[in-house]
Amino acid sequence: MDKEINIKNILKIIRNRLWILLFITILFTSLGALYSFYITKPLYQTSSKMIVNADDKLMNTLMVMIREPGFLEHVVKEMDLNTSPEELSQRISAGSIGGSSIVEISVIDRKAEIAADIANTASNVFKREMEKTFELNDISIYSEAKINTVPININHENKIVLAFIIGLIAGMGLIFLLDFMDNTVRTDSLAEQLLEAPVLGSVSKMNKKNTAQKKNKNEKAEIRRHSLETNE
């Protein structure tokens, strides 16, 4: 029974301030959609693949070297990129696929075409520099990077749903916070607890509409009474 009463009280609290919940939820959902469609900058990822026949120790060394600024400086100069080798290092990764001899070089960029060009250039530079540095001639390009036009960081539906959920939670939280800070005595039982005395009566809420209606009723009653007295 107590649980039913508590649930009814909770629903009543929400119903009394339902407009706050709707406003906050719609606001957050709209902001989430705005952020997803107009603010989030798309990022594109693609990769090139090579076959590198080397032992495990040398392979690990090669994977580290691919992301080194000293190696990437060759890529930056060859492509005349408007970025530093250090910045490019944050957008490029390399690794052996399933422990095999196939090495994948992945690149992320705001332009799909640039990402593919960097991945292919990095593969060619890697092949050339490794042959020069380690005299490793057993490196071949397995597949070139293709232009991938699907962004990896944009999912409008997920972001909008997430914004909706956050708005719903924020709206509910605000409603209960306002209710917690509201010291209005709403029930007779609460008044009796606070005053430690029985409630003998209550005064109805007065507003301009109620006052006007009461005034009109009194005027009509007075006219009716005056009319009856005149007839007599």
Structure description:
There is one protein chain. The protein has 232 residues and is α+β, with helices and mostly antiparallel strands. It has three domains: 66 residues; 100 residues, Alpha-Beta Plaits (2-Layer Sandwich), CATH 3.30.70; 26 residues. The protein has nine helices and four strands. The chain has a four-stranded antiparallel beta sheet with strand order 2-3-1-4. Strand 2 and strand 3 form a beta hairpin. It starts with a helix and ends with a helix. The N terminus is likely disordered.
Brief digest:
InterPro entries: Bact_polysacc_biosynth/exp, LPS_length_determ_N. This protein has 232 residues and is of the alpha+beta class. The longest helix has 26 residues, at 156-181.
